[in-house]
Amino acid sequence: MDTPSAESGAALAAVPDRLRITEIFLSLQGEARDAGWPTVFVRLTGCPLRCTYCDTAYAFHGGEWREIDAILAEVESHGVRHVCVTGGEPLAQKRCIGLLQRLCDAGYVVSLETSGAIDIGDVDPRVSRVLDIKTPGSGEEGRNLWSNLGLLTPNDQVKFVICNRADYEWARGMVAEHAIHQRCDVLFSPSKSELDARELADWIVADRLPVRFQVQLHKILWNDEPGR
């Protein structure tokens, strides 16, 4: 049986670490714990889910291959401390794990926005993993990887996007059943096109839920403009 030559092995070793990137841009973080901070967003291309309320479908396809060294150089050029790796679903690209580690090593405050459909166990513990648990209204409830809940730490965050009252009651039950609020911050967000923000806020207050209400600050400021 043929075995790889030393030359072919060297060629494979020389292949740079690359990721397919939709965009890298500077904006304000619009949600979660770091809302309001100037943040560099690194948006990876591709996602195996198709949530009904997705606002970044343009990241499903296309993008361009970028070496991780080049990604870090562009992040550094923006001159801010906070970096958010998002998508699409960033963990669908295996080399995302290496990017996250290198960002942490460089001293950035790093967050990862992930659907929760892919195992988060290999993510650097210095990263704040923002786990988006999919409600029935998302159309992707069946993709939730529930074993991820056991990996959560106080550095992480869990987000529920609420589409309607049924979603709210479902999410309320999940928080109680799994005691998620005892593991990390829990965020409830209204689906922009489906649920009035004030209505969701009233439900949370009435039930005295141990969760944080949030709206997407960037949508208030810039609507659905890509790169903002």
UniProtKB/TrEMBL annotation:
Classification via Pfam families: Radical_SAM
UniProt: S-adenosyl-L-methionine binding residues: 53-55, 88
Pathway info: Purine metabolism; 7-cyano-7-deazaguanine biosynthesis
Cofactor(s) needed by this chain: Mg(2+); [4Fe-4S] cluster; S-adenosyl-L-methionine
InterPro entries xrefs: 7-CO-7-deazaguanine_synth-like, Aldolase_TIM, rSAM, rSAM_QueE_gams, rSAM_sf
Major enzyme class: lyase
Gene Ontology biological process terms in this record: tRNA queuosine(34) biosynthetic process
GO MF assignments: 4 iron, 4 sulfur cluster binding; carbon-nitrogen lyase activity; magnesium ion binding; S-adenosyl-L-methionine binding
Comment on bound cofactor: Binds 1 [4Fe-4S] cluster. The cluster is coordinated with 3 cysteines and an exchangeable S-adenosyl-L-methionine. Binds 1 S-adenosyl-L-methionine per subunit.
Binding site for substrate: 28-30, 43, 86
Domain Radical SAM core: 34-228
Record EC number: 4.3.99.3
NCBIfam families according to UniProt: rSAM_QueE_gams
Quaternary structure and interacting proteins, as annotated: Homodimer.
Family: Belongs to the radical SAM superfamily. 7-carboxy-7-deazaguanine synthase family.
Name of the protein described by the UniProt record: 7-carboxy-7-deazaguanine synthase
Organism: Luteimonas granuli
Lineage: Bacteria, Pseudomonadati, Pseudomonadota, Gammaproteobacteria, Lysobacterales
